[in-house]
Every structure is written in C-alpha cells, then in structure tokens.
Amino acid sequence: MKPFTSFLMIKRLVILGSILVLFGGCKTQAASPPDHGGDLSGAYPVVAVLPIHNLSGAKAPLDEIRQTLERALTQNGVPTLDSAGLQQFIVNHRIRHIGGMEHQTARSLHTETGAQAVFQTTLEIYHDFPIPKLAILARVMRITGAEVETIWMDGVGLAGDDAPGLLDLGVIKDPQVLLQKSAEQLIRSFTQQIKACGRREADQGISADFQPRSVFGGAGFLPDKSIRVAVTPFFNFSERKYAGDLMALHFVRQLTAHDNIIVSEPADVRKAFLQGRLIMNDGISLTNAKTLFRKLGVDYILSGSVLDYEDEQGGTGKSKVHSSVFLIEKNSLAVVWSADSVHDGDESASFFFGLGRMKTAHSLAAAMSRQALATIFRPGP
C-alpha cells in the first residue's frame, strides 16, 4: 500500500470514528443499527442528502450541486444514503417540499432506510457568468429514535472575484471550481463539528460595522436552561424573491449555534402555518403567534421583515440588506427584543483594492444576523 493511500485511509477512519461518537450521543460504543437489508447492509452512520431547495429565483444545476456535496461527504468518510433509496422514499411519502423535513417524516426515514441524519441544502444564489457567484445554506438533522434535532448549520457565499489579487490572477471564472470550493468549505465545517463531539460554540458578534442601528431589550438575556425558539418566515417587502425565507434561515443558522437553544425545524413551522391556515399580513399577528405557540410548544417566536436584500450585480453597485427582527415571549405575548439593521457590502472593504468587500447578500445577512443576536446574549450592564 502506498504511503499516501494509507494516510487517506487513516484520515477517513478517524473522521468515521468521530461521526460514530457524535451520532451515538458521544458514547464510547455506538448502538447496533437494525438490519434493513438491501444496499445499506445495516451500515451506520448514513446521511440522507436531500435534493437542493432552490430559492435563487433562477435556474441552476441542482443535481450537480447535490452530487458535489454528496461526493465531498463521502470523500471525508461520511456514508450517504443511495440516491435511488432516497428518491423511492420521497415518492412513497409524496414529499413535495424539500426545504426541510418534518420530524414525523424524518423518523419514518430512519425506520425505513436506516438513515441517522438528513443533510438539507438551500441554494440562495447561483450565477455562472460573467463572474460566478454562489451562496448556499445547509444544515444536518440527527435522528435518534423519537428525537430529531438540528445539530449543525452553516452557509457559504462566494464570488469568483472575492480575492482577485495582482492583475486579477486570483479571479475564479469556472463556476465548477467555485462550487467545489464551497462544498469543501461546508463539509469542513460539518466535520469540525463532528470532531467537537457535537458541541457548538456561537460567535458572539464580529465587527462594529454590522451593529444594528437600533435595539430594544435583550441585553443580559442569557438563559441558564434550554429554551425552544421557532423562527417564522420574514415578511418580504423587498424586490428579491424569497428574501423573507432566506433571512429567516440566517437567523435559524445563528440560533442553532447555541447549545442551550433548541430551534424548531423550519419544515415543522411551515406545517403549523398550513394546519392553522395562517396568513401573514405585513407580518405575524398575536393571534397567529398564539396558534404557533400551541402547535409548536416553543418558548419564543422570532420573526421580522426584509426591506432590502440585494447582491452586487456584475461587478457594479454593492450588496445591501435591510431587515427588522423581533422576539415574542410565550406567556406574556410581548415583544421582549427587537433590532433593526441596514448595511451594505462596502462597509467591510479596505482601501487596498477593496479587499474584504461583501459581494453577496448572503455574507452580509450572515454578518448582520449574527451581530443582531449578539445584543441578546451579551451580559447586561
């Protein structure tokens, strides 16, 4: 056996061992899976990679994106459920919405296929010409018996000219190269979470450049016990299609980073809206909030609105995001925290060839949502 091949095998075995620890609740021995027969042969752990949820508002190579992510997982030692088995499950259960998976459906997936986790991906933007641009949000739900929990969520927003370098030698013009780079970055984040045995460390803010322009309440809010939060789609006043859904996902991502916060699966929130026949007129009403509290069993509801959600277009202009967010407490039905943020991608740019400029609304929204939530969790005066 060649030394390089041996090194790769050792690397994959280390990662696979870490995965077994994570999905076994960090125990020294993983529980033996049921024998489902067929292609799986009882192998664990198995991750089901869902088809891509396209919120870009445009056509994109969704199969290629999914295959690239799945390939990156397997190259890092993470077994995946075969596509044919997953597709058959989707057909049998008549699953139409792939923006997530309801807990009941996830448990059925585990029972019928042996999958222990679901890898869900949302495509935010895809441009292949003239300069490629790509933004993705992804999360993993762990399925252990009756429990379904989001254990990891991250995102990546890249443009081919993020780091042009001298004479534009660093410009990436091939969209496949940018896709591969994005996939590697996401899967690296996931495997690092695995190595941490599922422990999540939230970033308590980044830069003063992305502070909310106004904040109400929230300072000193640091619960000493687990709380449950549901994030509803934001009301979209912007010209960007699906901006309300995307902004909500950014806040789900930031909240998921906290170990003491259990975030409702967006698919379950969607189901509650459909079952309750809830319609948002300029935002969520208190009547709707009562229904959601009852159906989802959460302690808080986070909602808001989006006024601007713009990407840099063709190397001109600048990205811009303007959003408002608020948190409703269950017992009082009162707004206990709110924040209003408006920023553009040039705020982080340096004078040296504009390095650091955020060219995607994704990167800007990620920074703004993280900084807004930092005003809740920082210690009070």
Polypeptide structure, described:
The protein is an alpha/beta fold and 381 residues long. The chain has two domains: 16-195, Rossmann fold, CATH 3.40.50.10610; 208-377, ABC-type transport auxiliary lipoprotein component (Rossmann fold, 3-Layer(aba) Sandwich). Helix content is 34%, strand content 23%. It has helices at residues 3-23, 62-75, 83-92, 103-113, 175-195, 243-256, 266-275, 286-296, 361-377, and strands at residues 47-49, 53-54, 117-127, 133-144, 147-159, 214-217, 227-231, 235-236, 261-263, 300-310, 320-329, 335-344. Strands 6, 7, 8, 9, 10, 11 and 12 form a seven-stranded mixed beta sheet that branches. Strands 1, 2, 3, 4 and 5 form a five-stranded mixed beta sheet that branches. It is globular and about 60 Å long. The chain starts with a helix and ends with a helix. The relative contact order is 0.12. Residues 1-8 and 24-44 have low confidence and may be disordered.
